[in-house]
């Protein structure tokens, strides 16, 4: 008997248009009606995770920024947070600047950038609950985008980082030079201060060492008296690997990378085939 289902958002609960389909929504609500708790475990901003949770009336503590923060499903406020240490951030900046890569930093619901440009300008819009009936413009989603601040801090990231102790929870590194990206990834990981997870073909996320979706779920389950064998999780990418291996039932999406499928207990349909709904019907109801 499973007591908790934890879902990744992108590539899992959301289809390729970033929409929660009616079939996925109804299956989640049916599962909750059977007294199985459902939560989201995502690398996204807390506000984005909270907005999606509100959309389907989730009532279990939420996981955002790859496990760096846990979020109250009723209020969207932080319950616990594990920020990056200033020394770790400064080391990261040294490595990234040597290779000429791009980086931005995540506060609780703020994106800190050197300058606002085409790469980061759309970040708040990319975190909204998409409504197919609405035209894709800022005006139609302003009530959501206003929850995430895009903050231009200038070229001196070091001074900014030193002025923000305990306020930065995640970094995203983007590098079009694949060899340089791999060098940065390996150097940051080898430092012993940072947790790196690939989240796309050109980018990876960086959290404090030991921070992951699994770590956050483990802590939440311990508090709720839920054994890991009573937990099912679904995901599709590298930042889902730890929780897929840890849970009693690890569900890889049909669109997941091959190495993700290889460590899962079961493989469901793709996010275009309502794979979450399929998994709920086949394994949890």
Features:
alpha/beta; Rossmann fold; Hypothetical Protein, Haloacid Dehalogenase-like Hydrolase, Chain: A, domain 2; 11 helices; 14 strands
Shape: globular
Strand order of the largest sheet: 8-7-6-9-11-10
Amount of beta strand:
15-25%
- Main beta sheet: strand number and arrangement? 6 strands, mixed
Helix and strand string, N-terminal first?
EHHEHEEEHEEHEHEHEEHEHEHEH
| CATH fold call of the largest domain | Rossmann fold
Task: Specify the CATH homologous superfamily of the largest domain.
Answer: HAD superfamily/HAD-like
Uncertain parts: none
Distance between the termini: 9 Å
CATH architecture of the largest domain: 3-Layer(aba) Sandwich
Radius of gyration: 18 Å
Number of strands: 14
Overall mean pLDDT = 96
Supply the number of helical segments: 11
Helix content: 25-40%
What structural class results from the helix and strand content?
alpha/beta
CATH class of the largest domain: Alpha Beta
């Amino acid at each position: 008997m499973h007591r908790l289902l934890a879902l990744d958002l992108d590539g899992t609960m959301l289809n390729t248009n970033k929409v929660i389909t009616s079939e996925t929504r109804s299956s989640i609500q049916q599962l909750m009606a059977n007294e199985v708790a459902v939560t989201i475990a995502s690398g996204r901003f807390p506000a984005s995770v909270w907005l999606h949770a509100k959309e389907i009336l989730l009532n279990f503590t939420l996981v955002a920024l790859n496990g760096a923060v846990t979020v109250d499903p009723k209020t969207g406020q932080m319950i616990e947070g594990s920020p990056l240490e200033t020394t770790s951030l400064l080391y990261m900046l040294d490595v990234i600047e040597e290779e000429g890569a791009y980086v931005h930093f995540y506060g609780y619901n703020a994106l800190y950038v050197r300058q606002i440009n085409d790469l980061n300008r759309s970040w708040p819009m990319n975190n909204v609950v998409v409504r197919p009936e609405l035209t894709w413009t800022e005006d139609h989603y302003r009530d959501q985008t206003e929850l995430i601040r895009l903050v231009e801090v200038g070229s001196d990231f070091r001074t900014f980082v030193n002025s923000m102790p305990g306020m930065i929870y995640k970094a995203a590194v983007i590098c079009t030079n694949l060899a340089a990206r791999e060098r940065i990834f390996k150097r940051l990981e080898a430092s012993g201060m940072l947790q790196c997870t690939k989240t796309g073909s050109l980018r990876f996320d960086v959290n404090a060492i030991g921070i992951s979706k699994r770590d956050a779920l483990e802590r939440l389950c311990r508090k709720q008296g839920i054994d890991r064998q009573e937990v099912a999780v679904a995901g599709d990418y590298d930042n889902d690997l730890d929780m897929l291996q840890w849970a009693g039932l690890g569900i890889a999406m049909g669109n997941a990378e091959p190495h993700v499928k290889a460590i899962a207990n079961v493989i469901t349909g793709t996010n275009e085939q309502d794979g979450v709904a399929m998994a709920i019907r086949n394994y949890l109801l």
